[in-house]
Every structure is written in C-alpha cells, then in structure tokens.
Fold:
Amino acid sequence: MGGSSSNGSSGEARYFADCTDLVTLECGSTAATSTVTYLPEEQEAGEDYYTGDRSRISGYVGIQKVHDSDGSGTAELSVTDYRFRLSGALSHYVEDQGGGGRTTLTLPSVMAGFRLTGRGNTQLYIDAGVSVAISRGAPAMDTSITAPTIGAQVVQYVSPELALLADARAMWFEDDVTAVAGKVGIKLNWAQLSMRVLDFNVGPTLWGPELGLAF
Structure:
C-alpha cells in the first residue's frame, strides 16, 4: 500500500500498527487514516529516539550529603551536536571546622567529548579536558592546582522518562596529586538520584548521595 510522499510535505496517509518502514509505510494491515508530516532529515535522527534534536543544551544542578563531612553542590552544562559534546562542571565542597573555620574545595572542569555509540537507547561518551582544584581554609595552606582530565559517561534509557547513568573521571594534578571521580544514578523525568564520589590520593574520600534536577 502507498502513503504520502517523504519529501517533507504533509498529507493524508494510512497509519499502520505493524510498520517497519515509516517513510514508505509499506507494511501489513491498516489501522486508521491520519494527517502526518514526513521530514527525511528527521528519519535518520528518528532512530535515535531519546537524543531528540541533533543540537541541544542540557544541564544539571544537585546537592550532596558528604560522608563524615558537610556537603557539596554541583552544576553542569553541556552542548551536544549529535556526535560531539562540549561540557563544563563545577563542584563545591564545604566542611565546617572547629572554632568557626571552614574548609572549601572547588573543582571546575571543561571537557570536550565524542559519542562512541550510534543510534539507540544507549549513549556512550568519552571526553578529555582540564580540571582545577581550588582549596581554601585548609590547615596547611590555600592551594590551586591544575590537571589534565579524561572521562567517560554512559546513559541507558529504559523509557523516554527513565534512564540509568554512570560516569567516571581521572585527573592528574601537579605535585604528584591524582584524583578519580564518578557517580552512578537513576533519572526519572527531571529528577535525578545519584551516588557521587571524589577520591584524591591525599586526604579522605568524599562520597555520598546526591539529589538533583536534570534539564
């Protein structure tokens, strides 16, 4: 059976419940008649159902309860053009000290990434960039050190509303200081619940649950 043309125009078309070719609509029995619009350039991206538009901006803000410490806040922003992604993140850790003092660690990073997977429900990125660890109020001294950084992120969509996610990052700072960071979590619509960890080869591991909004 035939349908409307696939050159970007709107028209009357037979809609099939068992179609495998959404452009020609050549398949089994008919179900109903409806008006549809065919955009050939979207047919290719359509298989990548959960990615949506090829170019998009996404963000995240969250707060974390850090084990044996006070807490942290994280903000992330990324621009993705299907295969390529540019992202920035900022985490800020706070711990109150006795006598009214406060120790803070601020960790900004800028990363450029490449998507390894093709279309489908799984998104896998690798990225590289630079991170800076800025410590204030520590007993020794205030410090600011820079590190080349590599990382990976995977998102597995269970449905358009529900996704499982994980990421990991390794940083090599000056003065033989290294760190690894990562999180695993679940995202439901805009809400995201994760377990985040930041582990330097000096000092205690910073880890704990995090609740945030992804958009």
In short: Residues 40-46 form the longest helix (7 residues). The chain has one helix and twelve strands.
